[in-house]
Amino acid sequence: MENLLRHIPKDVPDELIFTLAESDTVRIERIVSSGQSSPEGFWYDQEWDEFVLVVQGAAGLEIDGEPERTLKHGDWLVIPSHVRHRVTWTQADPPTVWLAVHHRPKVGA
């Protein structure tokens, strides 16, 4: 048994991504952000659907063509595959802790 909020370093100069579990069809990650954001002009365009939950902290998320969303602890959403998105900001103190579940989209979806 573990806890998502344990073992978070005080200084996080780069975003930390730790894979908690993985199979051929799913990958579960804990992501720790401390003021990081996507580089200017960079967009994620992923092959897999992604469920993302902010466990601690807050962040700004922009989905291409939509206004920026503010996610706070407890907020979650599903980003379908190939929907371009980027992180515009993350809270540094306390660090923003995300739970991300990447999973293959349904066949025929």
What brief labels describe this structure?
3-stranded antiparallel beta sheet, about 110 residues, 5-stranded antiparallel beta sheet
C-alpha end-to-end distance = 35 Å
Structural class: mainly beta
Shape: globular
- How much of the sequence is in beta strands? over 45%
* Rg calc: 14 Å
Structure commentary:
- By secondary structure, the protein is an all-beta fold.
- It has a domain at 30-103: Jelly Rolls.
- It contains no helices and eight strands.
- It has strands spanning 16-22, 26-33, 49-56, 58-63, 69-72, 76-79, 85-90, 96-103.
- The strands form two sheets. The chain has a five-stranded antiparallel beta sheet, with no helix packed on it. A three-stranded antiparallel beta sheet has the order 5-4-7, with no helix packed on it.
- Strand 1 and strand 2 form a beta hairpin.
- The mean pLDDT is 94.
